[in-house]
Design a protein that fits this description.
CATH topology of one domain: Arc Repressor Mutant, subunit A
Radius of gyration: 32 Å
Order of helices and strands: HHHHHHHHEEE
Helix content: 40-55%
Strand content: 5-15%
CATH superfamily of one domain: Cell wall hydrolase SleB, domain 1
Strand order of the largest sheet: 1-3-2
Distance between the termini: 107 Å
């Protein structure tokens, strides 16, 4: 019986490599198949006309939202129809700025202030984020861009209704509402003050208690 058993074991050992491939051979086979598929895909793509390929390519991404240019009627009726807004850090920074700078203004007045902030975000002379623009200069008393960030008083939100309203305006502006209220303004001040810089800038409009300005920076010349 033992010689017969040995013969069977020997025969199985001889047949096994041919019938059950090893892990290495299976991996090599899969790799070869993948190369064939990639080659076939490239050959097929090369036969597609260039115009067709251009139409299939994804468009370049934009820093502006998809809804950029969306026309919004900033009125009390529009505001009341909007759902409760929410968002991330940029939304909260913008909502806080509107709350502390313009919560007593009309909806249009709040949107105008938001325009200035977003115009600055788009301008190369200012930080590239909402929070960066709003907090520029914060840390040194009264040397900041938005007074509430450096007046030494805590930023406490104690008017829930006003907070909900400015949140809706901030959401609409970040979602791409058309900026057509201030003529591209990058600065503003209340009508209660007359800062010296206002004489050098172009006054674009007045909305509520805020006067808006656009400053055209001159490009410095070599040796100037």
């Amino acid at each position: 019986m033992r010689p017969v058993l040995w013969f069977v074991v020997a025969a199985c050992a001889a047949i096994w490599p041919a019938t059950l491939p090893t892990a290495a051979s299976a991996e090599a086979n899969a790799s070869a198949q993948a190369k064939k598929l990639l080659a076939a895909e490239r050959a097929g793509m090369n036969r597609v006309p260039e115009k067709t390929m251009q139409s299939l390519r994804a468009p370049k991404t934009s820093l502006r939202p998809r809804a950029a240019g969306l026309r919004v009627s900033f009125s009390r009726d529009w505001l009341n129809r909007q759902p409760i807004a929410s968002g991330g850090a940029q939304w909260r920074c913008l909502a806080e700025a509107l709350y502390f700078e313009a919560r007593g203004e009309s909806v249009k007045g709040q949107a105008a202030v938001a325009e200035v902030i977003l115009n600055r975000v788009d301008h190369p002379r200012f930080p590239g984020t909402v929070c960066g623009v709003i907090n520029q200069g914060t840390g040194k008393r009264y040397a900041c861009q938005f007074t509430y960030t450096c007046d030494g008083r805590p930023e406490t939100i104690n008017e829930p209704k006003a907070w909900a309203n400015v949140g809706k305006v901030a959401r609409a502006m970040l979602d791409g509402a058309k900026r057509n209220l201030t003529g591209g303004a990058t600065h503003y001040h209340t009508t209660a003050v007359r800062p010296s810089w206002a004489r050098k800038y172009t006054h674009t409009t007045t909305v509520g208690v805020h006067r808006f300005y656009r400053h055209v920076w001159r490009v410095s010349q070599a040796g100037g």
